[in-house]
Amino acid sequence: MEACLFKRSVLVLLGLMVTMVHGVAQVDDSAGFTQAQLQHVRSLGPWPPAWTADPANRVSGQPRAVELGRRLFRDPRMSPVGYIACVTCHQPDRAFTDRRARAHGLADLPRNTPTLANLRQQRWYGWDGASDSLWLASVRPMLDPREFDGNPTSITRIYERDPDLAACYAAVFGAEPVRDAQETIVNTGKALAAFQETMVTGRTAFDRYRDALLRNDAAAMADYPAPARRGLQLFVGPAGCVACHRGPNLSDGRFHAVLDPEAARFGDDQGRVGGVERLRSHPMNLLGRFNDDPTRANAQAVERLVVRDHMRDRFRTPSLRNVGVTAPYMHDGRHDRLVDALDHGVPTGGALGAGARDDLLAFLDTLTDEHGERRPWSTEPLAACP
Questions:
Q1: Terminal-residue alpha carbon distance, the chain
Q2: Which residues make beta-bridge pairs with 255?
Q3: Do residues 169 and 187 make contact, with C-beta atoms less than 8 angstroms apart?
Q4: pLDDT exceeds cutoff 90 at 199
Q5: Cα(358)–Cα(353) distance, integer angstroms
Q6: pTM of the predicted model, to two decimals?
């Protein structure tokens, strides 16, 4: 998918965080959380959040649409060359990423492949937010000559050559896939989006600790490692990480400046500036005819978007859920290890103390669910289609 769709400079956290942690002493494990810190901890859950359908996608949440999207996700016919599919870059045994610094489809791309997880929690898609819906983010790689190098005609041809897939499409969308080539590729993106919405990470040791902390369950809290607890206190306290990595998905969904813009830029990648330009000019954005929300409320943010110079070199904050198994890090994949991402952007003469670094890493490690890098994947149909 988009190289692509989402792992912002793991962080502008992990850069911002480090700057703020410089000179901060480790938090005493015996010390309690302040009321402000408890409020921050409360805001990081509950998990999983309640699921809601995407109003821009009329088949969001429909079992047959999910099944159609699952089939298309791993179908190499999605690319005219016959060997590139979504699963090429988003591999289930690699946390639905590819372990490369920067993505590669038919050619090299400038950004790191984001993991596909908890996408329904996002508002903008891609490192630069060039997509305003998950289905547009699914369409983009199909048409990108560096990724699939497809076109509406080549996508329509998949259904022409596969009667079962065509019947599934007709059952989901109530129309034949050869009726309107442009609508067919949008609907293909919507089916893919319906499938990707099911990729929700599980509960973690942190989630269990958070819930126990809020209900003052000492027995349940005792299972949480002391270093992770100190790291959490840094995260929501003196380190200030929660300023960008907030909410149950541990991301504010906004765009933040890379601390070293010249080192961060790969080719002509200018971050959010380019993303806004590409989104505003795209015929399949939420301002167009393919938006299924009759209220059009979801298009208001797009209408207000204006390119501004301060957007340059800004990239979207990634979620920290399962961050321990989604290396390499940053939007350009410059760091292979999470510890290096933590130290990114330390001012000259400053350094993250070894103890604080270890505690933060211990906390981040508790954000990985039981599946870790190997995500659940079944070859059995998810629903009857048609």
A1: 26
A2: 316
A3: yes
A4: yes
A5: 9
A6: 0.90
